[in-house]
Amino acid sequence: MLNSERKSLIRFLVIYFGSTFFLFGIAMWIFYVSAKSHLLSQQKETLKYEAQYIKSRLRVLHLSNDEKLVYPARKGTESAIYDLDKNYIFGTFKHPIRLNGQKSKKNLYHITEVEPYYLGAAYLLVTKEIDFVPIYNLRKKISLFMVGSALFLLVLGFFLGKLFVAPMKRSIQQMNHFIQDTAHELNTPVSTILTNIEMIETLSKHKENAQELKRIEIASKTLSRIYDDLVYLNLNHDYYRKIESLDISELVEERMFYYSGMAEVKRLKIKKDIEPEVIVRMDRNDALRLVDNLISNAVKYNKQNGELKIKLTKEYFSVTDTGRGIKKRDINKILQRFKRADKSEGGFGIGLDIVSQVVKNYGYKLRISSKIGYGTKVVIKWKK
Fold it and tell me: Domain 240-381 - what CATH class?
């Protein structure tokens, strides 16, 4: 799966799961609060029955002539009676009474008026500990339901995501097939043109057509580079890489000479600062793609009579141009395939994508800095 497909799929799944679980979570929370409230209401009903029982027993005691008064109490509940001024009279526990409602996280309370005032009592407070077992069971059931729903939505989201990226995948596959076919068709004519130009330059002693031949050579080299890039894109994950100690200084000098004709057409002033014998362990083809794309971009997007600065050290390789520059918001976009910040020049928008792939494969660091109207600088750090 390509990066663009993977990013689109991740965005879809994040939005899908985020919105689904957010709405689902709200629904489950509302259900939990409602069910919990219902369970507590059921437990509170038992307090009302207990209060009625105690009131009936207080009436019996009030009318009784027995000198021994035994306060009615039953296991599992606590109660107390209070006078009109809310002063404690008697009970199985002592607790200040609040007519606006008793509050506790562990107990349920029920307050009722006693009329007439049996044994001088005006209020009866009944309380019991909350039975948390049904609430814990409710949470357990909701949690299991949420886990099961999450697994179902995960599978469903995966298949929906596949359907979501399918059109993009087909388009990319068609584009890749087109590129592959185009590269195949380009190979023979480009090779023929370059070979014949070299023969003409070698055998011909006449210089009257030298300028025209130079232009043909530049165009042919441009086509050759495009062909090489297209082949690289198609074979990047398949071809065998021969990792070796490569003299990158020698390779940069070689590629600078290769692109010197293109630089001359734009009258670019070339400034080179290349340390000798800079050795980097990598595949030569990968190194060619890296160096070629950076130099060719710097030449192509430079201005007439501009500057091209090449610097190579044992720590980094940098290419600086004096072109129109790149907007800050576009810097990350141009590393994606088929993306171009400047569409005034030709190209497929694959050069920096190839550079990004090479850098990623070898664990190097890529940094692009640019200023509109002043140019762009690309730095590759060899050191990890």
Answer: alpha beta
